[in-house]
């Protein structure tokens, strides 16, 4: 299993033992005082807050100047005004979780035209909108894994619905596409995806959409919400409804938001990665680009602090690592 929080303990201990003389991570190689701005999908989404915190921690490590700016809703063009301001401020890099694959591209291109490096994380733009995409995990693996998990929870048959984020979210749409691919396999012939609903990564709308799904599909056996906002809202609705214990809730959630629902029997299992590490990795990628250590080409490597050396894959993608499945047996080992 993925043990994200412990991976570099050995290196850290060794560095301490060597009095950090030769272990000054990559900080010494990076330009000092880099101005790096994070633009999350939404400023108040708990997942994005954890990722942004990871980014700010990395920036502190290498002596840069970090900040987080962004909209309060995940609408397609809601990030444009923030990008424009960051261009005016001559930031060295913009690290953005894009709310739409295309809406922000002209503005990010303008930024790159002025020498600002652009890294997407969590939710990508079209490739021409950025130099690098820091992805939490392989998108195909996430999508197929969600179907494998829900199939197990449904006993291999019945109807399920997806409760997604916004209809334009690049990350959720890619995962759903892979879920639909996985569903074509013969072992899922008794499972039917009856509806894809959108809660817009808004807690209240996700809550109401959950209620709507249960009313519209009385035989529903599961809801898969591949969004931390959606899964928490769906679990909250179901935990106090007559569907508790009858309709499974799964998807992607943070252990801290989902713990109560695992303990009270509403949720059996769900998945995620460590968003803090995602932001941390994205900040190091941005700094390596801004310091001229990498240009964004496949095969180039850079030092990502406590995450070690990372290599750029096809189409400028850098992958953090595989997701973890959380359930009652391990959820208390995680605190994010
Ligand atoms: C929500 C956001 C984010 C996604 C997670 C899983 O917080 O939609 O983009 O990666 O869920």
TrEMBL record:
Entry GO MF terms: carbohydrate binding
Matching InterPro entries: Bact_Solute-Bind_Prot2, Peripla_BP_I, RhaS, SBP_2_dom
Ranges where the Periplasmic binding protein domain occurs: 36-293
Pfam family, one: Peripla_BP_4
Subcellular location: Periplasm
Alphabetical keyword list: Signal
Main subcellular localisation: periplasm
Gene Ontology BP terms: rhamnose transmembrane transport
GO CC annotation: outer membrane-bounded periplasmic space
Signal peptide feature range: 1-27
Family: Belongs to the bacterial solute-binding protein 2 family.
NCBIfam families recorded: RhaS (TIGR02637)
PANTHER family (alphabetical): ABC-TYPE SUGAR TRANSPORT SYSTEM PERIPLASMIC COMPONENT-LIKE PROTEIN, D-XYLOSE-BINDING PERIPLASMIC PROTEIN
Protein name (record): Rhamnose ABC transporter substrate-binding protein
Organism of derivation: Paraburkholderia panacisoli
UniProt lineage: Bacteria, Pseudomonadati, Pseudomonadota, Betaproteobacteria, Burkholderiales
């Amino acid at each position: 299993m993925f043990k994200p929080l412990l991976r570099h303990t050995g290196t850290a201990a060794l560095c301490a033992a060597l009095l950090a003389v030769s272990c000054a991570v990559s900080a010494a190689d990076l330009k000092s005082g880099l101005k790096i701005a994070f633009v999350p999908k939404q400023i108040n989404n708990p997942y994005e807050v954890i990722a942004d915190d990871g980014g700010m921690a990395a920036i502190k490590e290498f002596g840069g100047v970090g900040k987080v700016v962004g909209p309060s809703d995940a609408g397609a063009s809601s990030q444009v005004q923030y990008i424009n301001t960051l261009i005016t401020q001559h930031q060295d890099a913009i690290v953005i979780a894009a709310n739409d694959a295309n809406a922000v591209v002209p503005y990010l291109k303008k930024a790159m035209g002025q020498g600002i490096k652009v890294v997407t994380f969590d939710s990508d733009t079209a490739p021409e909108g950025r130099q690098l995409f820091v992805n939490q995990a392989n998108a195909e693996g996430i999508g197929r894994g969600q179907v494998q998990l829900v199939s197990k929870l449904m006993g291999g048959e019945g109807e399920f619905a997806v409760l997604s984020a916004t209809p334009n979210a690049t990350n959720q749409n890619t995962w759903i596409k892979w879920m639909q691919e996985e569903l074509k396999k013969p072992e899922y012939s008794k499972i039917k995806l009856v509806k894809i609903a959108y809660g817009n990564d808004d807690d209240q709308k996700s809550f109401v959409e959950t209620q709507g799904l249960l009313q519209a599909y009385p035989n529903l056996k599961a809801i898969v919400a591949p969004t931390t906002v959606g899964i928490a809202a769906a679990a909250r609705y179901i935990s106090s409804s007559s569907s508790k214990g009858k309709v499974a809730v799964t998807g992607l959630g943070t252990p801290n938001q989902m713990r109560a629902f695992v303990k009270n029997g509403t949720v059996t299992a769900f998945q995620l990665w460590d968003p803090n590490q995602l932001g941390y990795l994205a900040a190091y990628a941005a700094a390596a680009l801004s310091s001229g250590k990498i240009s964004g080409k496949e095969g180039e490597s850079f030092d990502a602090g406590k995450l070690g050396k990372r290599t750029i894959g096809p189409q400028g993608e850098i992958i953090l690592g595989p997701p973890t499945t959380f359930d009652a047996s391990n959820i208390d080992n995680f605190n994010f």
